[in-house]
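Technical note accompanying the year-one report. For the benefit of new consortium partners, we illustrate the data format agreed upon in the data management plan: each record pairs a sequence with a structure-token string. No post-processing was applied to the example shown here.
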Amino acid sequence: MEHNSPSSSVIQTGSKEIDKLLTMIITSTQDALAEYKKSGAGLPSPHATEAHPLDSASDEFALKRALRILEGACETLCTTLAQPMHTILNRSMPFEAQCMRLIVENRIADLLEKFPNGLHVAEIASKTKNQMNPRKLGQVMGLLAARGCFREVSENTFTNNRLSLTLVSTNPVASMVHLCSYEIQKSINVLPEAMTDPEYAITESAEKSAYTFAVRDEGATSFYGWYQKHPELQGQFDHAMIGLSRVEGSLSIVNNYPWSDLPQGTTFCDVGSGVGTIPLALAKAHPNLRIILQDLPGAIEEAKQLWKTEFPEAIETGKVTFKAFDFFAESPMEDQDFYYMKHIMHNSPDAEAIKILKNIAAVMKPSSCVLIHEIVMMDGVRSAEDQESQATSMAKAQEPLLPNYGSGNLRHHNQNLNMLGLFNARQRTRGQFRALGESAGLELVEVLDLVEMHVLKFQKINVGA
């Protein structure tokens, strides 16, 4: 529950703003602790060497809401009290990403799983594939341990903890870490140059993004085109997308939409499905749904293999249909009840996004709806739309936090820059999504807030008029 109730344990500073921040920190901490207590597994320790049951839960909305306030309030308090030069210099040193990349590429977290009591950095270095310099590796491990990733049990002796366990190679979050710190980092490193280069600065074409600027000497004209030149990384990218879904809690849509109330045989068409991770979970949980997966031929062939392994009965009984198509050039199968897209719109500049939506709208029946499953950006200023945001279950933060929770929703802003760097695209606000829909003849009728992700429901404009 998000609240700012007074607490007698909060120090009264004489500053109304700081007192409110302190109260937010106390109450959001209490809310988070309550969720851990409800789990029956006790409270986590910063030095725990095993994962807590809540570490991989996708439907922990109350915990996510509490942390959204806690992170926003802590960051705001620190920024208020610290000297600006302190804060700015710290933010200009994004070294952790490359340190974690080194850990993932050399499977150091995997290695430490065999040594729960810890291993000296000299031994860790000797066991790595390329026989790393132990002094240098110690500097890397020291930074990560200082940030709570790994535990230094004695001088230069490290063991895994809850954070570093996510860097084990079998964890898809580790693949996402590598994607962020290697492939995506290419675009961020050259973003200032790409945004001022005469050939790249003004255009919104995906072929002239910061990423294509970074890899232009390799002849790749798109992010996905680069993978065609580096097929050895394609599997890791696919694994990373599973990790991203876990972090975002994407599977929460399975249990937080009234699927079970729908008639037997209700059709769910995933447009740009990939292998169909979300539909696979839906099909297992809600047998009344009939699934259609549509994507490019290569993705559809991978989907067939996955479903054959994970849910062969769906194939045998005809509960799932696979159909290759290109959503830029074609319409999906007509007259489906739900047309669903996850992380499709954010890859596309407005003109391409409208084209996709128009291709769907052309084959919708009057009762059809489109579900767009993405991040919805919240405004950083308070406006007349705040009342509407409350009505659509997108509650904004109370003052003195920014209405978009500031650092409490930092990953939204990072993803926004990610889309800019990779595709010249963006994460959109509710108003921007509404405008896209209207350009394609669709009306935004509902926004379901899943804390980090949202589901926007569209129907044809003037249906039944």
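Partners are asked to follow this layout when depositing records. Residues 16-91 form one domain.
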